[in-house]
Amino acid sequence: MADSTYKFNVKMTCGGCSGAIERVLKKTEGVSSYDVSLDTQQVIVKTTVPYDDILAKIKKTGKEVISGEVVVA
Q: Which Pfam family is one of those matched by this entry (predicted)?
């Protein structure tokens, strides 16, 4: 299965918030890369994992996901 790219707008207020998301993505099998930006409040994930599964993992950190989309390459 080819990698998909997902972009999420996530409410993060500190380095601990972005760190929690980074830790959960690092442990997720099928995630080839990710970029968590506290400045832009964005999380970009390249993965073979379905969108809903990645969304659930981010929400499990307790952070509010304001919006999310599948980025078409």
A: HMA
